[in-house]
Amino acid sequence: MATQIFLADKATLDATKSNTDTIKTNVGSNADVASASGSVHAKIKDLKTALESSGKMKSQLFTSNGSFTVPAGVTVVWITAISGGAGGGGGINGGDYDSGKGGNGGVTSFGAFLSLIGGAGGGGASQYSGNIATGGTNSLTDVPPSASYANGNPGNTNNGAGGPGWYSSFGKGGDGGTGSRRGGGGASGVFIKDYPIPVTPGAAIPITIGSPGSPGVGNGGGGNGGNGGPGALLVSWS
Fold first, then answer.
1. DSSP letter assigned to residue 165
2. Cα dist from 71 to 48, 78, 115, 214, whole Å
3. 3-state DSSP assignment of residue 118
4. What is the b/e burial string over 200-232, where b = at least 16 CB atoms within 10 angstroms of the residue's CB?
5. Residue 197 belongs to what H/E stretch?
6. Are 144 and 163 in contact (CB under 8 A)?
7. Which of 158, 155, 136, 139 is nearest to 147 (CA)?
8. Which of 12, 76, 129, 174 has its CA 20 to 30 A from that of 26?
9. Edge-to-edge strands of the sheet including 2-7?
10. How far apart are the C-alpha atoms of 9 and 78, rounded to whole Å?
């Protein structure tokens, strides 16, 4: 799904105020009513034209796979994105059991220009006393200024919490499963902000959104890990 967002610049806001201030409101006779009505309609039309022609920043948010068509006259876009968060590992409640590892998050990409690897799944809890479920880790890309949003916590730290996400849920790592031994938390997706990419007007650029990592299955009465969060990608241009 893609959501388009419009942000008016100062010039547009000033034009809006000017148009609003000049609308005739001193209405008395029927002739005045007709004149005022015509004035209102004319000013609304002027306002619509001003909004459409202003240099406002526009953005389109993708939360599922899709395609972005570069608008006419646009030669650069800015990308903010996160890949899929990983699932948390399963927990155990004692006994001779091992639990499942959380699944890795999926890749978020913008055509051939940008690819962000998903977070790694949290480790499953183990029966062996010396083994602590590991937290998932990020794999950084070679595209600056990409950065790991956060690794998952080991099963014995912060209750195996997963890494945080963008706007809470996008790319979040799943928590480790509950039990006497908790699973490790899944890593967040790799995050990038306001990355400039040169583009060609009219080009259709495919967008892939990273899938959430699956939860590791608990064993021996332990809980399953948490799901990872899906990725997201925001395209901005002016």
1. B
2. 19, 14, 22, 37
3. coil
4. eeeeebebbbbbbbbbbbbbbebbbbbbbbbbb
5. strand 190-198
6. no
7. 139
8. 12
9. 2-7, 57-62, 232-237, 76-82, 190-198, 147-148
10. 17
| Three-class DSSP category at 26 | coil
In contact, 180 and 219? CB cutoff 8 Å? no
CA 146 to mean position of chain CA atoms: 14
Whole-angstrom CA distances from 179 to 16, 84, 128, 161, 183 are 60, 26, 14, 13, 8
Q: Measured between alpha carbons, how far is 46 from 37 in angstroms, rounded to an integer?
A: 14
Q: Which residues contact 27 (CB under 8 A, 6 or more apart)?
A: 33, 36
In the three-class reduction of DSSP (H, G, I as helix; E, B as strand; rest coil), residue 87 is classed as coil
Distance CA 105, CA 190 (A): 10
Window from 25-29, 91-95, 185-189, 233-237 with minimum mean pLDDT = 25-29
Helix (H, G, I), strand (E, B) or coil at 145: coil
The angle that helices 30-53 and 10-21 make with each other, rounded to 10 degrees, is: 170
Peptide bond preceding 144 in cis form (omega within 30 of 0): no
Query: pLDDT-based confidence at 10, cuts 50/70/90?
Result: low
Q: Nearest Cα to 176, choosing from 188, 186, 189, 164? A: 186
Question: What is the rounded end-to-end Cα distance, in angstroms, of the chain?
Answer: 21
Amino acid at residue number 17: K
> What letter does residue 164 receive in the DSSP assignment?
P
Place of tokens 């479920």: 133
> Residue type at 33?
V
The alpha carbon of 24 is separated from its chain's Cα centroid by a whole number of angstroms, namely 45
pLDDT(48) > 90: no
